[in-house]
Design brief:
Layout (H helix, E strand, L loop, with lengths): L29 E4 L1 E2 L9 E2 L27 E3 L14 E2 L6 E2 L39 H34 L1 E4 L3 E20 L7 E25 L31 E3 L4 E4 L1 E6 L2 E8 L1 E37 L16 E16 L2 E7 L1 H7 L5 E6 L8 E4 L5
Antiparallel strand pairs: 1-4, 1-11, 2-3, 5-6, 7-17, 8-14, 8-15, 9-14, 10-11, 12-13, 15-16, 17-18
């Protein structure tokens, strides 16, 4: 959701991004407006600074509760100086007319009764049942146990399966297998490349290139870097710590009793405004011994600033050698490796020659081709048993075949 940029009322910093809640220069914060519903005419989403319903004129009821709207975000500057006394001070309830009053006033604005006899405040009053604002309910111990079992059982099954699979793979990879039906072979290849002409372009003309044309085009480059700042969520824990509190379990929206990020990370101050709140972390419904304080911090970074100028761009052609074709010969024991004869074409040259040796056999009725050395090829050409291992350490879908060290 986009918000209008704002000017800090404390230090005057202009053009602060509308989604920031704190001035990056002086730390001046903004709170967020809450909303309430009229119990008389059922008007919804009345902003908290309206003490009476704009539709029917009835004042806010004593048990009204403020909430945040998903479709609308309105910020309000956090007060300072003498007015700061009311920050985190909830409204008080008049004992005579049962209406809510700001903490800053000592006389009820509805009936002029003195505040001295008031014993109830905003957070002491229970909300009506029809209210739909998010509210966390502590789970019973039995529910906590069930949640723990639901979470732990998949972990136990997963790690148990992984352990069994690892043992099975280790045993299977060390097993030496034998086969007598195999076929050694060799393959000799000549790699030939060809000189070809290509076209390209760039802001510099290579020394071995032939110029085709030039053109004046836009050239964009990094002119300099500017220091920027942004507000980021942080907590009391080091994000690098591998623990339940700081490792990221608190930002999923379901492991804390403040509603997680579903509530936007805001707490009801009780005066119509919402601010950053403290989250008691939960593990399967059980409250952790410590609290995580979520707050904004200023993060600084260097942002590149680009510039564009007109510059000469070169379009050119150049020659390069690329792989063109291969000439291959194959053979089996009884035939010494050799290279097929060939004729080089115009602009062709021989790049390299290679000879490889292989042995073909079947493993679990699947064909296998294993590359071997020349000495192993000579040894297997005389017949006998082929001894090998099937290494499945990387998984059964990607086995590696290895000749056994004690190959006879």
């Amino acid at each position: 959701m986009q918000h209008s940029n704002w000017i800090c009322p404390q230090c005057g910093l202009p053009d602060i991004s509308g989604d920031r809640v704190k001035c990056p220069r002086c730390g001046k914060k903004r709170n967020r407006w809450g909303y309430w519903d009229c119990a008389s005419c059922q008007t919804k989403g009345i902003r908290a600074d309206h003490k009476e319903c704009p539709n029917c004129g009835r004042p806010r009821a004593r048990n009204v509760k403020f909430y945040l709207r998903d479709d609308l975000v309105e910020f309000v500057d956090e007060v300072s100086g003498q007015d700061a006394v009311r920050i985190n001070r909830p409204n008080w309830i008049c004992p005579y007319c049962n209406q809510q009053n700001d903490d800053a006033v000592d006389v009820c604005v509805y009936c002029n009764a003195a505040r001295t006899e008031s014993k109830e405040r905003y957070h002491d009053v229970e909300a009506p049942q029809q209210q739909t604002y998010p509210k966390y309910k502590r789970k019973k111990d039995r529910t906590t146990l069930v949640c723990c079992l639901i979470v732990l059982i998949p972990f136990v099954l997963f790690f148990g399966y992984a352990a069994i699979l690892a043992v099975w793979q280790s045993i299977s990879s060390k097993k030496v297998r034998t086969v007598t039906d195999y076929a050694p072979s060799w393959e000799s290849t000549v790699y030939i490349e060809e000189l070809r002409t290509f076209e390209d372009s760039g802001w510099e003309l290579p020394a071995d290139a032939r110029l085709i044309r030039t053109a004046e085009e836009d050239y964009t480059y990094i002119d300099h870097y500017e220091r920027r700042s942004r507000e980021v969520w942080v907590d009391d824990y080091d994000d690098d710590d591998d623990d339940w509190g700081g490792g990221g379990w608190d930002d999923g929206g379901g492991w804390d009793d403040g509603g997680g990020w579903d509530d936007g990370g805001w707490a009801d101050y009780g005066d119509g405004q919402f601010g950053v709140f403290r989250i008691p972390t939960l593990i399967c419904g059980a409250k952790a011994p410590s609290l995580i304080t979520l707050h904004y911090e200023t993060e600084y970074y260097d942002e590149p600033v680009y510039a564009t100028v007109k510059r000469t761009k070169y379009y050119y052609e150049y020659d390069a050698w690329v792989d063109s074709r291969t000439v291959t010969a194959n053979g089996t024991p009884g035939t010494d490796p050799y290279y097929e004869s060939f004729t080089l074409g115009e602009n062709e040259r021989e790049r390299t020659r290679e000879t490889h040796w292989y042995v073909d056999f079947r493993h679990n009725d699947k064909p296998v081709r294993l590359e071997i050395s020349g000495d192993e090829y000579d040894r297997l050409s005389g017949g006998g048993e082929l001894r090998y291992r099937c290494d499945v350490s990387d998984g059964f879908d990607d086995p590696r075949y290895i000749l056994a060290d004690d190959q006879g």
